[in-house]
Design a protein that fits this description.
Blueprint (H helix, E strand, L loop, with lengths): L1 E4 L2 E5 L10 E5 L6 H9 L9 E3 L2 E3 L4 H6 L2 E4 L11 H5 L6 E2 L2 E2 L1 H15 L14 H14 L4 E5 L7 H16 L3 E5 L5 H5 L2 E6 L2 E7 L4 H9 L17 E10 L3 E9 L3 E6 L5 H9 L6 E6 L2 E2 L5 H7 L1 E4 L3 H5 L6 H6 L7 E2 L2 E2 L1 H14 L16 H15 L3 E5 L7 H16 L3 E5 L3 H7 L2 E6 L2 E7 L5 H10 L9
Parallel strand pairs: 3-10, 3-11, 6-9, 9-10, 15-22, 15-23, 18-21, 21-22
Antiparallel strand pairs: 1-2, 4-5, 7-8, 11-12, 13-14, 13-16, 16-17, 19-20, 23-24
The chain binds adenosine-5'-triphosphate (ATP) and magnesium ion (MG).
């Protein structure tokens, strides 16, 4: 398979085969060509050259309809759901059940409820899709693919936005389908998932297949195949002696969402915020940043008390937020990489009153290089970058912005192993120079490996705090699940 885009060869002669009853993992760095490969199988991209055979017969897959006719269903890395429609409407988009020529809403809602039940997601058929949040949206996307009864199911980073419990549920479903003879393509950057769910692994590097290995292959070997070198230390946290309190959150509450949330982050500290999806972590982060209002409590940044719901004031006080929804809130998709990297610094990047374009360009280029952003150049539109490279640009933007207090919401979601380590090093640089970092992450090894203290949230409340030394995956999960008796949100 071959496919080129302007300025970049995405697929440079990839060979790939898939058998019934297997989960075939597709592994590779950000920009290696994984999504492009599966898009040639789902009809989203026409390859420049190469052949596709199904059951030994050559086929042409020109559209999503062609793929559907061949029994190929795809869960994309970017959601294809329509936020304005209901969950049920999304599940049956383009193929609603009909009665006497009219859409049979009763049946649609009943069928939708059954599908939601099957994947075990807490969502109602009549709920607006846009209100679900991204973890539950992903589960809906999975439910939709399942409803197509495909022979080939392609999943592009389905676990990137899920937490432990949902991943377990997803793996049960995938294993069940595999046992029924469905052929599954599974893309993930979480190496520990591979032996749990995979059978074979094909590794892509720079648009070419560099090897096919069994799923039980040791992680360091997979990393070597993927990035061409080994990675010594996955979590290179360098602690700094904590200084003054830079972020002081007191008794923050929002009716029905979170309550009584108090914590501090000092200069030089990385404080992790762990918990299950829906525990209220993102909601607290958005309230602290002023993106959402709150009813009670105060937020103080470096001694300045912020007004609720005022992002401009938060930015002015030196607070930055890397949002979990990078596409919706983090990036200007139509702008190029240089512009995106410069977005927050723009106001300050002046020399003698003029915008310092040269300096801006240099800083953007330096950051792109450090994070190994795969692109045809700084002029590539952010919207056409691979998923992980988009995430790197959002992070890079905030690291360049020089915020004194940086809130990172799922910073390394979808980022490959090599770039993760580079992001952690940049976090070290920040804390070494007196910045404070609050890191929300569902990736427990990351929280444990990079935080100095871990706060655990459960159902809208802080359930407890653990020092880095004493926190383990089990102790964090125990707090996250039990959470204490007085949770705000009904569970
Ligand atoms: N529509 C497009 N226009 C221009 N370049 C593109 C387009 N789609 C993909 N590319 C480029 O093709 C290369 C491969 O991208 P692809 O999305 O396949 O990577 P990936 O392996 O899925 O990475 P990730 O792990 O980050 O999702 C990248 O260099 C990307 O910038
Ligand atoms: Mg991708």
């Amino acid at each position: 398979m071959r496919k080129a885009f302007p300025g970049v060869v995405a697929l440079d002669g990839v060979d790939f085969d898939l058998r019934p009853g297997e989960v075939h993992v597709l592994l590779g760095e950000n920009g290696a060509g994984k999504s492009t490969l599966i898009k040639t199988l789902s009809g989203a991209h026409r390859p420049d050259a190469g052949t596709i055979e199904v059951d030994g017969e050559p086929v042409e897959i020109r559209s999503a309809e062609d793929a559907a006719r061949l029994g190929i269903a795809t869960i994309y890395q970017e959601f294809n759901l329509v936020p304005e429609l209901t969950v049920a409407e999304n599940l049956f988009l383009g193929r609603p059940p009909r009665r006497f020529g009219l859409v049979d809403r009763r049946r649609m809602d009943a069928d939708a409820a059954a599908l939601l039940e099957r994947v075990g997601v807490d969502a109602r058929p009549g709920q607006r899709m846009g209100d679900l949040g991204i973890a539950r949206a992903q589960m809906v996307e999975i439910a939709r693919a399942l409803s197509l009864d495909a022979r080939v199911l392609i999943m592009d980073e389905p676990t990137a936005v899920l937490t432990t419990g949902e991943v377990d549920r997803l793996f049960e479903i995938v294993a069940g389908l595999r046992d029924q003879g469905v052929a599954v393509v599974f893309i993930t950057h979480h190496l520990e998932e591979i032996p749990r769910i995979g059978d074979r692994v094909t590794v892509l590097r720079d648009g070419a297949s560099v090897g096919e290995v069994p799923a039980g292959t040791p992680e360091d070997e997979l990393v070597r195949l993927m990035v061409g070198r080994s990675i010594e230390q996955q979590y290179p946290r360098e602690r700094t002696e904590p200084g003054d309190v830079l972020l002081d959150v007191r008794d923050l509450g929002r009716a029905g969402v979170f309550d009584g949330v108090s914590f501090q982050v000092r200069a030089g500290e990385v404080v992790g915020l762990a918990g299950l999806v829906g525990a209220g972590r993102t909601e607290v982060a958005r309230a602290v940043f002023g993106a959402d209002p709150y009813d009670t409590g105060t937020v103080t940044v470096a001694g300045t008390r912020l007004r609720g719901g005022d992002v401009a004031a938060a930015l002015g006080a030196g607070l930055g937020l890397v949002p979990e929804d990078r596409k919706g809130q983090g990036l200007v998709l139509g702008a190029d990489v240089r512009e995106n990297l410069g977005l927050v610094t723009l106001g300050r990047a002046t020399r003698a009153g003029l915008v310092d374009r040269k300096g801006q360009e240099e800083r953007a280029a330096g950051m792109a290089e450090r994070l190994n952003v795969r692109m045809s150049g700084l002029r590539q539109e952010a919207g056409t970058l691979s998923g992980g490279n988009q995430q790197k640009v959002v992070i890079g933007k905030w690291l360049l912005a020089g915020a004194r207090v940086l809130v990172l919401d799922e910073p390394t979601r979808g980022v490959d192993v090599g770039a993760k380590v580079e992001i952690y090093r940049l976090v070290n640089d920040l804390t070494a120079s007196g910045h404070a970092v609050l890191m929300i992450s569902s990736d427990l090894p990351e929280v444990l490996g990079m935080s100095d203290r871990v706060l655990v949230m459960a159902r809208g409340r802080l359930a407890g705090e653990l020092a880095a030394g004493e926190a383990t995956q089990d102790s964090v999960m125990a707090l996250a699940v039990t959470g204490g008796s007085d949770a705000v949100k009904g569970s």
